[in-house]
Amino acid sequence: MSSDLERALALLRDRPAWLAAPVERRLAQLVTTVENCARPESAGELAALLAELEAGAVLEARSCDSPADRTSDPRIPRFEDSHDGEDDESIRRTECAECGSEMAPEDSLDVNWKMVCVECIVTGAARVPVRGDYALLGRLGAGGMGEVYKAVERPTRRIVAFKVLKDFQTGHDAELAVRFGREIAILSRLDHPNIVRFLAGGEIDGHLYLVMEFVPGKTLRKVLAGRGRLDPVRTIQVGYQVAKALEHAFSHKIVHRDLKPENIMIDREGRVRVIDLGLAKPMISAGVSGITGPDACLGTIPYMAPEQVEDSRHVDQRADVYSLGTILYETASGQRAFTGQTRLALIDRIRTGSYVPLSEADPDVPAAIQAVIERAMARDPQDRFQTPGEMRAAIKALDRMSRR
Fold it and tell me: Is 231 annotated in the active site?
């Protein structure tokens, strides 16, 4: 691992008081890109950002969170109530800044540092960008597939997560949006307490979009960035709930294909929720940038099974079992099982199963937990748990053992 990457990971783990939220988000994005060897120039960008931080430029960046800057871009207002679940004292206000009506705290929405009611969002009294039936309140995040916004679905007045997808090949297929919407409708039938539900999908203004449940909370990636790792008991609790979600999906013949800490939410009640379950098929069908083409790789390399790095299109539920194993390895030990200086080096380590045994990475992890995690990470799919349900049962047995 490069020294720049080590320094960046240390900052994300320690989260010093001077590390402003926008800078932290940018740092996390660059770390993920560098670790996945996705863009050669990202290593230089990471080095430059670290140099700025060390020079004290972060103090200037902190102004990005000031109220004065909140209205600098009227198109997409900033807000605090997001999937990160950070509590904001302003949420306690009970009077709408637009109409003056009384609001329960859970009914108030933060738009440009003003608390407004849903009715003002729906009627347009509070000016926010609108895409079809959806009023966009602010951006939650961005990734390889597109950008996600907190939004109000105006006909139903419910709060949702609205994802606008990146490049896709519409010119060659007039039925693209219809097919995409049909496949999302199928995925919306996945109804499970550990799965973030898809609600709708289609095309607006020439862009494909997805609508999902809005889940206040934090991704497992952010939890690990703040804590470094979780204790063994919490690790198996996370694993058990993710395995239940995968088991439900498998019963509907659906495979995730891109399970990673970024796609696992922990909500404000502590429940684990899996994001983007089954999204791979609609993405391939839509021709989303980064997923189509002869050299496309569907998945996130450090969490991909050996057979998946060989052929990411044709994998089964055992690839998800493997990905969950790598996530639990990282959750328990605080370090990734597979790293590499280059993309090819990383893939070679995955192909050969070259990782530090969990007993060496963290001797404090109980042997029984190590055994479950490392069986899930077996290089040969035949040596793994054959279904998510089988892995869930093994994790449940660990819990029974701990209660004796």
Answer: no
